[in-house]
Amino acid sequence: MVKNKSRDRKANRTVRPVYLDYQATTPTDPRVVEAMLPYFYESFGNPHSVDHAYGWEAEEVVDRARQEIAGLIGADPREIIFTSGATESNNLAIKGVAHFQRNNPAGGGKSPARNRIVTTVIEHKCVLESVARLEREGFEVIRLPVDTSGLLDLDLLTETVTDKTALVSVMAVNNEVGVIQNLQRIGEICRAAGAKFHSDAAQAVGKIPLDVAAMNIDLMSISGHKIYGPKGIGALYVRRRPRVRLEALMDGGGQERGLRSGTLPTPLCVGLGKAFALAAEEMQEESKRLAILSQQLFGELSAKLDGVQINGDTQQRIPGNLNLSLNGISAGDLIREVPGLALSMGSACSSAELEPSYVLKALGLNEEQANSSLRIGLGRFTTDADIRQAVELLVEAVGRLRAKN
């Protein structure tokens, strides 16, 4: 079976399907690629080399990238720490704060350390695995449920976050169902209790307005390849005032305020900055266009097929995400039935699992409903023609599969 699947994949590489998986990754915008190119072979200096022009030049463009990133989220450029991506950022934020709190209790050891970590059951795998590791180290971890729309109960959060809480980690936008959490209210709850608030915003930046000051966000994780930037680069926002203290995960030369050692990849930093600059200019119009395309796709599928249901809140969600349950259809069978479309059943980081999506189960879907769910991600380069083709191919494929049953 594995060999046949491998042959099928190789055979299909010559046929380029319509890409509808923008939550998994985005193509790098050509304008981002253009901005990056000179820093691979012309201005190739090490941004940490302070003794000559090549290093100064690299340092200057890296600092400009910090400014572009900070500008989109209402931060100070000095609060932007470059990482390899959101997974590293999430690990650094969660483990870094927890370990600092444990090793530096308030009052010089006279007051008990904050030992509680609060998160939700629908976080990205790297967040859930990070808190699981802390739990094995002796931290108290509380994983809060969400309602059937995918939203966190803020009254329950208020009850849970106390003076024992070191950190609350809640993702801004869920990577499977596209639901937007109430970040401002969560930030207020955390600030009132003296707990740090971390948000995995990989799926949010460039899609919804974010303001770390207004939302009382202390740490925010960012990924380049979710915002039409390059893979292998991300950032962590770390608040300076009031100062957030965390321990580094890696030892080394102490670059990035001593929090993330290692030589910065100048071209990737430039690309991430350019992606943020483009998002700042185009986010509003892009969101309107994607909302129209999403409504068109869902409306036409609902009109032509019975049993089509949106998973997650229908209003409080990003416009480019549609997570749909198709009654009586296996999503895996459907994806195989439409090779002309690049779709997914859920998170690319969990695609090797055979179990139904833990996110959809947390929303109350049973196994059959979860297995019939399809994630459709629209983005910057999705066209009207793509939507028409997607509707046509999906309606035909569902018809064939239902006829077999």
From TrEMBL:
Its EC number is 2.8.1.7. Pfam families: Aminotran_5 (PF00266). It catalyses: (sulfur carrier)-H + L-cysteine = (sulfur carrier)-SH + L-alanine. Keywords: Aminotransferase, Iron, Iron-sulfur, Metal-binding, Pyridoxal phosphate, Transferase. GO terms for molecular function: transaminase activity. InterPro entries: Aminotrans_V_dom, Aminotrans_V_PyrdxlP_BS, Cysteine_dSase, PyrdxlP-dep_Trfase, PyrdxlP-dep_Trfase_major, PyrdxlP-dep_Trfase_small. Residues 18-388 form the Aminotransferase class V domain. It comes from the Bacteria. Its cofactor is pyridoxal 5'-phosphate. Belongs to the class-V pyridoxal-phosphate-dependent aminotransferase family. NifS/IscS subfamily. Catalyzes the removal of elemental sulfur atoms from cysteine to produce alanine. Seems to participate in the biosynthesis of the nitrogenase metalloclusters by providing the inorganic sulfur required for the Fe-S core formation. This is Cysteine desulfurase.
